[in-house]
């Protein structure tokens, strides 16, 4: 709840020089597009150096021949959608402070639900811990229905491959079973981004990864269920389940 409400409040006379903003893991472009004050700002998404396995959770995808400071600066400051293709996003709902709530009371509320009860916990009657989405609602001058039309650079929301495999097996991502399949797929396809973004369902089926390929396809299509994090409790992103007969049909049509 600290900080500034506008870029001008923060940077004052230097505001015209602020051309690029990093959205962070706690927000995605849809959340930022609701603030018209960011219309002239290029949004980028960079991974944090959390650990080796977490590198690349967010990234920027460019199509440029000259990978130099000046080339990147020109692409970013001009919002050149021909060369800045898209950003790769972490689902912000997975963050520990997306919704409002009380962890000990197991109260998890959207900003709308929270405001109806004056942000007071219905269990312990103390003030709720306010999350990131609430802050967006306070600052936004556009509705969720309006946000998409203001985005210039598109984005893709991904789930790390180990988390997809863990959801498929219904185990923890640190399990040996997850590591085994993860290593097999990396050996076959080279990189995690290649698997999550580029390898076709048909190719994965041909190579013996039919079932996990279906899960990856669902992530590409945004077919996920979100349980937002709150008050220090991580959120959970589940891939929507489907019957085996339907899975086969999706590969053969």
Any overview of this molecule?
It is a single chain. Helices cover 35% and strands 14% of the residues. The protein is an alpha/beta fold. Among the domains are: 100-139, no CATH class; 160-253, no CATH class. The longest helix has 14 residues, at 176-189.
Quick structural summary:
The chain has 253 residues and is of the alpha/beta class.
Mean pLDDT: 89
Q: Estimate the strand proportion.
A: 5-15%
Question: Which structural class should the secondary elements be placed in?
Answer: alpha/beta
Uncertain regions: pLDDT < 50 for 5+ in a row? 243-253
Q: Write down how many β-strands occur, each being a DSSP E stretch of 2 or more residues.
A: 9
What's the shape? Answer: flat
Largest sheet: 3 strands, mixed
Helix count, DSSP H or I runs of 4 or more residues = 11
- Head-to-tail CA distance between termini: 50 Å
Order of helices and strands: HEHEEHEEEHHEHHHHHEEH
What is the helical fraction, as a range of percent?
25-40%
User: How are the strands of the largest sheet arranged?
Assistant: 3-4-7
Provide the gyration radius in Å.
Answer: 20 Å
Task: For the structure shown, list the relevant keywords.
single chain; 253 residues; alpha/beta; three-stranded mixed β-sheet; 9 strands; 35% helix
Set down the secondary structure blueprint.
Elements: H1 7-11, E1 20-22, H2 29-32, E2 42-44, E3 59-62, H3 69-77, E4 84-90, E5 100-102, E6 107-109, H4 111-116, H5 132-139, E7 155-158, H6 161-169, H7 176-189, H8 192-198, H9 201-206, H10 210-221, E8 224-227, E9 236-239, H11 244-252
Parallel strand pairs: 1-2, 4-7
Antiparallel strand pairs: 3-4, 5-6, 8-9
